[in-house]
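Our preliminary data section would be incomplete without showing what the modeling component actually yields. Below, a chain of 426 amino acids is followed by its predicted structure, encoded as tokens that our downstream tools consume directly.
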Amino acid sequence: SFAYFTIKDRLPQILTRVIDTLHRHKNEFFEEHGEKGVEAEKRAISFLSKLRNELQTDKPVTPLEDELPDAALWNQYLDYQRNLSNGNGEPSWFQSPWLFVECYMYRRIHAALAQNPPIDNFDVFKEGKAQNFFESQEAVITLCTYFQELLKNIKDLDEKQLQEELFKLLQVSLWGNKCDLSFSSGEDSSQKSSPLQSLENMIPYILVNDMEKLWSTLVNAKKRNTEKSNVRVDIILDNAGFELLSDLVLADFLLSSKLADEVHFHGKSIPWYVSDTTKHDFNWTIKQLQSANHMWMSRCGINWEGNLKKGVWVYHDHMFWTLPHDFSSMAEVAPDLYADLQKSNLLLFKGDLNYRKLTGDRKWEYSVPFHQALNKFHPAPLCSLRTLKSDTQVGLKPGQGEQIQASEPEWMVTGKYGVVQFNAAL
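Predicted structure:
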């Protein structure tokens, strides 16, 4: 299966890159922290080499031994996995659910650094994320320019034109999800071509297209909400780099078109899945745009910094997003986060990992309804914008998945297909 290939080949490659990254920064650690920095680097590398060996030789998945705030929740979850294995011994790397061991690996990478001050705040994936952003420069300029030109006459657009522009930017944000470094094991995955040119040709590859429902949700929320209450949209972020930029443009459009009054972003509290967005990546991206020597890029950066200062954009991170749990257990495991999401008029979940956690990462029949796979998770109306990079997909028409499977056996894992899949809260 694709899961087997991921655990056997991709994850060890990612660990090897992390170890190389630490090696390469040895001098920097020495300059900043002296011998203590070098000692910490050696300890972290030894911890990661041991982890790689455990993975490659299919050792049991061991409880976390660190004192980090989420360790107890992780170890409870590991106990739960043990009980599932029906007494077949300890869950090991190749005998456990893919989603669990993949999340577990990233949590152990985090521990390797967090337990080794003074390099405990070093993000081993930071360089790759920055590189993805810089290598996508042309696409970034194209999108910022398009958007700033659009803003000049956004007030004159009628409802139909607004809808068309929203659908365009939703698609840019959807296909921006192809730029995923955990998927390419850290290899270049930047956006090279114009993100707007090929949208028309990509429509047939959107297997579920609920953009109309998303539009109706926003328009109805606007009509229902009196002056007193704001329309709020939440974006649960995925990758930094070009994808994050496409999400920020979408968020600015929602405010500028008055479809929303506030946008809340949810990122990861620790470096995660190679290219996932952390608070540092979020702020760094806006700073890069501000200081760019391109008029429309810097205009975007300045406006977005302003949105954060005014409080119409709010960035959050929560430990729950980097736990191994499905979202169906959020109300129980992170009731504070669930209650916060209930205040939203629309939740946009970006990317493949969020989709896997929404649907419990099971091998569903393709035609199982989306709401059934969500397993009672419905804090608010929600929509998944996701390109397919793993073996889970629901909500297709009968026969649709089988038909593609017949001509393209790899269709679920190449990122070629996408969904804009909506579920109204109950």
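The longest strand covers residues 262-267. The chain is about 50% helix and 10% strand. Preliminary results of this kind motivate Aim 1 of the renewal.
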